[in-house]
Amino acid sequence: MLIGVSALMISIGTWAAESAPEGDSQAQGACELTDRKREMLSRINEARSQARQCGNQRFAAVEPLAWNCTLEAAAEAHSQDMAENDYFSHTGPEGVGIQQRVSNRGYVWRAVGENIAAGQASIAAVVSGWLESPGHCSNIMNEAFTEMGMAKADDPGSMYSPYWTQVLAQPR
């Protein structure tokens, strides 16, 4: 859906599984938090630290998220795919969605969600747009999520570059 600015697109998705795949959830690994990653995490955790209204749903403040390298890799791959193939969707051209993308990376999840955006020039603009959208805001404030990864990909030839993906999850 188009929100406010002509090049601003945002979409959401959230899934929970009672019977998510079994296995080792230690695929998160350790990775260096760059200044950009710290800003992404900080802005999201700042939002989670305050009670807020997301549409007609009220959320209490929730615990901060931890950065997860596997979720970041899934986010990066999806952002790059959208930019390179000039589309905007939770589902890739081959029909692969967030659940399978995250599972394919070896992350064994209990709950998984995704926020995507396109056209925003900064992390602040993306997070602000998500917080103004009830569904995206609900994903950010969802207490079931304990970890996140987020990424941006640019392709000057694509319609809405840059493309942003945030993956939120809770390991099994």
Number of strands: 7
Major beta sheet, specifics? 5 strands, mixed
Helix count from the secondary structure assignment:
5
| Secondary-structure-derived class | alpha+beta
Q: β content, as a range? A: 15-25%
Query: Measured on Cα atoms, how large is the radius of gyration?
Result: 15 Å
Which stretches of 5+ consecutive residues score pLDDT under 50?
1-10, 17-29
Shape: globular
Distance between the termini: 32 Å
* SSE order: EHEEEHHEHHEE
Provide the residue-averaged pLDDT: 86
Describe what you observe in this structure:
With 172 residues, the chain is an alpha+beta fold. It has five helices and seven strands, in the order E-H-E-E-E-H-H-E-H-H-E-E. It has helices at 35-48, 69-85, 98-104, 123-132, 134-141; strands at residues 9-16, 52-54, 57-59, 66-67, 109-118, 147-153, 163-171. The chain has a five-stranded mixed β-sheet with strand order 1-5-7-6-4, with helices on both faces. Strand 2 and strand 3 form a beta hairpin. The relative contact order is 0.27.
Topology summary:
Blueprint: E1 9-16, H1 35-48, E2 52-54, E3 57-59, E4 66-67, H2 69-85, H3 98-104, E5 109-118, H4 123-132, H5 134-141, E6 147-153, E7 163-171
Parallel strand pairs: 4-6
Antiparallel strand pairs: 1-5, 2-3, 5-7, 6-7
Short description:
By secondary structure, the chain is α+β, with helices and mostly antiparallel strands. The protein is built from 5 helices and 7 strands.
Question: Any key phrases for this structure?
Answer:
172 residues; alpha+beta; two-stranded antiparallel sheet; 24% strand; disordered N terminus
